[in-house]
Amino acid sequence: MGIATRVCFVVLALICTFLREGRAATFTFVNRCTGTVWPGIQSNAGSSRMDPTGFVLPPGTSRAVQAPSGWSGRAWARTGCVQDATGKVVCATGDCGSGSLECNGQNAATPATLAEFTLAAGGGDDFYDVSLVDGYNLPILVEPAGGATGATTCAAAGCSADLNERCPAELRTEGGAGCRSACDAFGKPEYCCSGAYANPSTCRPTAYSQLFKSACPKSYSYAYDDPTSTFTCAGGRDYTITFCPVATPSVKSSSGPGATTAAPTGPTPTLPGATPQMPRSAGGQDGQGVMLGDNSWLASLATGDASSAPSLPPALWASPLAPLLLGGLLLVVL
């Protein structure tokens, strides 16, 4: 066999390998918040590492990151990050505990809005979603390139609403910068879909997950929210991940971890623009769902204390019909 023939065979083999494995997808991270965010990226076990695993993203900017073929993992935004004199990075929400700009395989601390992906390898479909199962810190929208072909096929997934604005008092954390999940806040099996509730038949939507779902219908609101929250698209697409998708903020300078300016020294500072703010419309609503007032009575339902619940005769609270009455009351409120 001649040298030219052997070279042709090698080239053909490489082409076949490329076609079988598929090309790498590009994730473009866009910050439309009015302050800096620090995206974090974690690869699932057994998946190749995406590089970098964390970076700074000033307001009004974007950054493209290549994902390995067949990559699976999650991405999120860290907020309120500060850097002390030793160089350690700590964030108010979404902190991955690495102490640095990169997350290096570590996950986001709750609460954090998560964009989750399983990309196709060697043909097939990508799967993606935006999850509020671990709580919420920022609005996130995931959009595949090329546009939607169905309700959950190559369609935009995510949450454009500001859940921090309507978060029940008992779930609010970090001074209103995050909204915890009921599982994180109360640890009960019925909220965590664990123990006797570890299957779709027994783990049903709760008052809290329904609140999240009403505001963000294209996001996971609890662990078994699959039918309306898992999106698919033919493999090979690129994706745009937008933080604060409804915002149109002006670009302003920001110092902090990963910025081009020198990091501050001395006592841990508060960084200008470190807490992203979403625009507010008249009356405090943004058209993405209902605004709720003091929802502390929901915590009473979670803990079994009805003392702060809406006024109803004691006999009704003790009645077997109480769950139905509460459900009707919730529908009126929502």
UniProtKB/TrEMBL annotation:
CDD domains: TLP-PA. Residues 1-24 form the signal peptide. Gene3D superfamilies: Thaumatin. SUPFAM superfamilies: Osmotin, thaumatin-like protein. Residues 250-289 are annotated as: Disordered. Keywords: Signal. InterPro entries: Osmotin/thaumatin-like_sf (IPR037176), Thaumatin (IPR001938). Residues 256-265 have a biased composition (Low complexity). PANTHER family: OS03G0233200 PROTEIN (PTHR31048). It holds the Pfam family Thaumatin. SMART domains: THN. This is Thaumatin-like protein. It comes from Miscanthus lutarioriparius.
